Amino acid sequence: MEEVDKILIHSLRQAGTEVGEDVQCVKQFSSELIVEAVVRCVRIIQPSLGSGLSHLLPPGMSARFRLGMSLAQACQDLGYKGEIGYQTFLYSNEPEIRSLLMFLVEKLPRESAESSDQPAGKSALLQRAIAAQIKAQLALPWVPPSCRVPLLCQTQGATPAHSFHAQPLSLPLSSRHPGKKTPKEVKEYYREYLTPVTAQVSQHASVLASLLERNVAELSTTQEWESEWNSQGLVSRLTPEEYKSRKRQRLQKRIQDQLRHAAQPRPDAQHVPRSGSDLAELLRTIGGGAEGRNVLAKGTRFTHTEKFTFTQEPEKAVQQMAAAAETLPSSRQSEQDLQQRQEEEVTSLRGQLEQLSLRIEEVGSDMKQLTVSIGQVSDELNQRELSNVEKEGSVRVKKQTIDLLPDAENNLSKLQVLVEGSAKRVVSLAAQWEKHRAPLIEEHRQLKQLCSSRELESSRRLSEIKGLHDKIRQSAEEAKKKEGLYKQLMTEFESLPKDVSRSAYTQRILEIVGNIKKQKEEITKILSDTKDLQKEINSLTGKLDRTFAVTDELVFKDAKKDESVRKAYKYLAALHENCTQLIQTIEDTGTIMREIRDLEEQIDTEDGKKTTSNLEKILEDYKAIRQENAALAAKIREA
Q1: Tens digit of each residue's pLDDT (9 = 90 or more) over 342-387
Q2: Which CATH class for the 2-117 domain?
Q3: Which of 225, 292, 404, 528 is the least buried, fewest Cβ under 10 Å from its Cβ?
């Protein structure tokens, strides 16, 4: 088992599992290490199954149980036939974990030893070359500019530095929400009018900063939503859409309350009369300047308009100011009257709006009724037109019949002659058609048979051509894969150290094979000895039975004549019975010894399953789950 465990640990390290150097066997695997190893193997074998699984055990016990059930289901989907469940990962034992890891390691794709989860090809070679170049540059120490050689000047030369300046970007919704359906108009906007990301920033150096800022914002938003959903959303027992809609409603209500509260007048506010003379003071207050400063000193559109108005048309400006002063509320009007007037106006407008909406609904219902009636009238009109056409045809026939009534006898004789001629012509045409019909039918049958045979031949050849095309395509794909694998293996072979000898690995493999052969020979020898011993026991048993039968017959004949021989016969029967009981006792003893050995092996197996420690873990997890349930119940009561 030590060799098997070493091979498993080596394969798991190749798959990306972080197995410590102190771990030498499967017995030393912890629950975290088992989960990580299984998840990484599942991701390599079938990425669709392992993409949604985390290789880290969550802190909560309920989340651990869910992860264990998901892993068990994924292993069963891969074809694992053994018993598996969440207890396999949380309360593991050595034999089950070893068999599961052996199954997963056998399912791993046979690719390079360094990165088995990366496909072979030009992209893998390019990534490896980039990684090797980066490692080589990172391994070089930093050298001051005055001491750099030409090679270091290229790698450690001064590069222009830019400040981190991020700008807002406009990205398509499909890139942020892949599963969400995008309308046709939005797609057209993205395709025709949305500029690339590099053209949305003012400077080219801000592209990277803007992308990083956008990515960090989206990641933080996603993480905040996940934490909020895990802490509050799951407790509310709502779907994510319902939770979001309820949260949006609460936020809208809170904003409305804040606005309503801010719109209410303060009781301690003094009703100060407002007039046109307070305009400059109000502007100074908004501008935050002192009395001596100029309001809007930078020359805004308001100041320019004011200068132009007062310089060009002073009389007109005076009239406008007077009109504005008249429109402003006088000092006698309070804010409460204004507010009451506004509320009355709002209520009146709302009443008018409700009346208009009711009128619109009435008009809409009338339009629907008119539309239905128009459709019914149009259907009725079409039916009447059809009936009129039929009646016109019948009237035309009747009119022609009435026109023929005055000379009925001559018309009947003419009609009879026409009918007889038509019948003769039909008979002659039928005879001619029969003459031409027979060869045409025969020719049609021959052509149909020939067409069916050609169709069969063409379909057969088409299927052969398709099969050849499939074989050619498969052969080309296999050739490309093998070529890429050959290049990758050649690069790995060139990067491997040349001082490693194959003889050590070969010797180790030969030793393992020799040990297996010796074990097989010993097992075969034990089986042959057991068979020989069984044969000898059977022969001795048969010989004993035959000897007793002969002896019994001889002694029984003499026992009829001699009393002493009769006693010897009784002793012989008792001896035979005692020997039989002794043999049976020996056999029962052997059976009991075998059962004892089996029970000892079962005891060793149960000891290897760590039942006691698993029970302790189960009790601890049970206590943790009870604590989590109590905390959730407290949160629910508080809510």
Answers
A1: 888 888 888 888 888 888 888 888 888 888 888 888 888 988 888 8
A2: mainly alpha
A3: 292
